[in-house]
Amino acid sequence: MSDMLAPGAVIGILGGGQLGRMLSVAAARLGFTTHIYEPGANPPAGQVADRVTTAAYDDEAALRAFADSVDVITYEFENIPTEALDLLEAHRPIRPGREALRVSQDRLTEKSFLRDLGLNTAPFADVTDLDSLKAAIDAIGTPAILKTRRFGYDGKGQARLRAPEDAEAALADMAGAPAILEGFVEFSHEVSIIAARGLDGQVACFDPGENVHRDGILHTTTVPARLSPSQRTDAVLLAANILNALDYVGVMGVELFVTPQGLIVNEIAPRVHNSGHWTQNGCAVDQFEQHIRAVAGWPLGDGRRHVDVVMENLIGDDMERVPDLARQSDVAIHLYGKAEVKAGRKMGHFNRIIRDR
Amino acid sequence: MSDMLAPGAVIGILGGGQLGRMLSVAAARLGFTTHIYEPGANPPAGQVADRVTTAAYDDEAALRAFADSVDVITYEFENIPTEALDLLEAHRPIRPGREALRVSQDRLTEKSFLRDLGLNTAPFADVTDLDSLKAAIDAIGTPAILKTRRFGYDGKGQARLRAPEDAEAALADMAGAPAILEGFVEFSHEVSIIAARGLDGQVACFDPGENVHRDGILHTTTVPARLSPSQRTDAVLLAANILNALDYVGVMGVELFVTPQGLIVNEIAPRVHNSGHWTQNGCAVDQFEQHIRAVAGWPLGDGRRHVDVVMENLIGDDMERVPDLARQSDVAIHLYGKAEVKAGRKMGHFNRIIRDR
């Protein structure tokens, strides 16, 4: 493959959090060095990267110097300002590409995109004011959930409507931001599929994992997920459908609700995903290396799992569990090097290898 | 365990090669940052370390500043100058400790130490000049191998004697360095055991691996090794014997010859070891993390293997195999980020996961 970046090339990563950190380690494993671009000081990814630029996303000189110093640019989060992307893209390829970012940066665009692909989503409607919210409630019913169209993650920027009377309070929570009303879906459990697409269009999926959330944040992912063979096939096909439609290059996380009527797409994330961390201890090529392989034009790993895994996040004070976890067999601890423990902050995770099922 | 270094602490690593690199990644996984001390410019470990000092081992100011910046000091190679160790040890703990370095820096001291522990070694004799070499040949016979007592690795500083007449030429190869004559051992195969001992004296061993060398350099390690249950027990017991005798803290590689008369200790290395690289893809806690756990006063991982693995080194031009290896299932590639490919240079390795045996 002539498009393969050779070892020694530099991967630029926008964002210096734990995902950038684990991408950086994976890139090093393939002989690449990494350059992290992050506005915040002392980013976790910087501890394992060759180079760090601390600068804002509107610092044009810093962006330009960053782009000039790398061979390809990727990112650990989807909410990168458009102007920064425009400037960077003029210098170096950005992978995954702009279309994936455009779609996933806006919940309304994303849901419409998925529906237009023929995939099932929760019922949704555009909300710009109280009138459109009331119309949306009439169409979708309650309970429902109002979400900002942009910049939401881990349950932030969301308000639940138990009944139509909650409309005004929920709208106030949006603080004037454009929003989307989503109906609730009756589902038995949530799974996610971590899918990758190479520069040559090849698609590879890891085994779907089953997710449990607590307080709106991922708590555990268990692999294998409870899925019938046909559900498993559906999950792979719909993920491939999404990636192909976006001419996607890299790893994407696709969250799915499992219902008696089939799989419903909850959301997509154009990046490595918390629910794919189990691959670090379950596969020869983990999601981070898979992403780096894709953006570097390498062949993808095949995603085969050689052991069952339960991943559990360490949030805030869960860090106090680390000494006990370190004593347990078959537990692989992954900490993020964050200086300060805060409530609700993802501090690390661990993968428990399951031998006897 | 009150001796446990908390995440956020700094591990100092002497040596910036591939072992320091993989130690650095393992330390980051436990939330530590690393500071590499290395005389050579642009060390591979520096690409994934928080901090690098480029300075010689006789630069007292640099050594002092390095020691002051870290919480504990470890190393990736055993031939660190004594004066540097003296200075560093006055500031911070060095783990594994000085006794292990004293013993392993000198082949004669090492062999004597092992014999005094009641372990089997190849026959050996001190060689200081032609007379003592001739006496050694009389006692040990030929074929035999003459080795410098210090600074030998990967077959360097060695000369074979096929017959007594080779004595003078072999001695000339030593270039005046103190040497040791070792007799050949009839063995069926070589195995190595990667053993660890914690700050609390706990010992844990990984499963022994079977080694094949080419041109004096490790070629492959296969796990599990061909060993009877009693040989396996012997290997663990003798490794524990060595570690306990040295009040050792950290990971040690112990190379063993398998003979009909039992196991013979070939050599010990007071550090992580090339023959332990398979643990990266076979165990929840690999040898690098195991070493960091020990030097940081953490509980050891138990070393259990969840899958069979064959590790193969990528030497020099083997780098050309990488694109093909990247296409193969169940192959985990680990490259070292070395800028220049040289004949005989270790550029990386790969672990092949074996499912059906």
TrEMBL record, chains A, B:
SUPFAM superfamilies (alphabetical): Glutathione synthetase ATP-binding domain-like, PreATP-grasp domain, Rudiment single hybrid motif
GO cellular component, one term: cytosol
Binding positions for ATP per the UniProt entry: 107, 147, 152-158, 182-185, 190, 213, 266-267
EC number annotated for this UniProt entry: 6.3.4.18
Catalytic activity: 5-amino-1-(5-phospho-beta-D-ribosyl)imidazole + hydrogencarbonate + ATP = 5-carboxyamino-1-(5-phospho-D-ribosyl)imidazole + ADP + phosphate + 2 H(+)
Involved pathway(s): Purine metabolism; IMP biosynthesis via de novo pathway; 5-amino-1-(5-phospho-D-ribosyl)imidazole-4-carboxylate from 5-amino-1-(5-phospho-D-ribosyl)imidazole (N5-CAIR route): step 1/2
GO terms for MF: 5-(carboxyamino)imidazole ribonucleotide synthase activity; ATP binding; metal ion binding; phosphoribosylaminoimidazole carboxylase activity
Top-tier EC class: ligase
GO biological process: one example: 'de novo' IMP biosynthetic process
Pfam families, sorted: ATP-grasp, PurK_C, RS_preATP-grasp-like
Function: Catalyzes the ATP-dependent conversion of 5-aminoimidazole ribonucleotide (AIR) and HCO(3)- to N5-carboxyaminoimidazole ribonucleotide (N5-CAIR). Catalyzes the ATP-dependent conversion of 5-aminoimidazole ribonucleotide (AIR) and HCO(3)(-) to N5-carboxyaminoimidazole ribonucleotide (N5-CAIR).
Family of this protein: Belongs to the PurK/PurT family.
Name the record gives this protein: N5-carboxyaminoimidazole ribonucleotide synthase
